[in-house]
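Troubleshooting log. The previous structure file for this entry was overwritten by mistake, so regenerating from the original sequence record. Sequence copied from the archived sheet and checked twice against the printout by T.R.
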Amino acid sequence: MANGVKKRNMVAQVGLCLITLGIYVIYWFYQTACELKYLAGKDSEARPSLWTVLLFVPFGAFYSQYKYSELYERVSTEPMNRWLLFVLWLVFPFAVWFIVQTELNRRATY
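Regenerated output below.
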C-alpha cells in the first residue's frame, strides 16, 4: 500500500463479508473512506472514523453515506454524481461497493 490505496479482490471480499456475517463491510467502509481521504490530498473535512461510528446512529448513517459519496465524487476519475451514489447506498449498496472498489483497484499500484 505504498500509495495509500490497497488493491482488493472482489470475490475475497464477498467471502469475508459472509464469513464475518457482515462485519467486514464496516471495516471496508472505514478503510476505503481513509483511502479516498488520502487520494483527496488528506482532505481536512473528511472524517472516516466519525462516519463509521455514525453508521450505527439512527439517521447518522444517511449523513455518513452522503459524505462518503461526496468524497468519492471529488476523487473519482469517472463522472459520478454524489446524489446518484447516495441513492445507490439506500437502494442497492452492493453497487456502491462494486463502483468504489473498482475505482480504488484502478488507483492501486499493485
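The chain has one domain: 10-107. Archived copy saved in two places this time.
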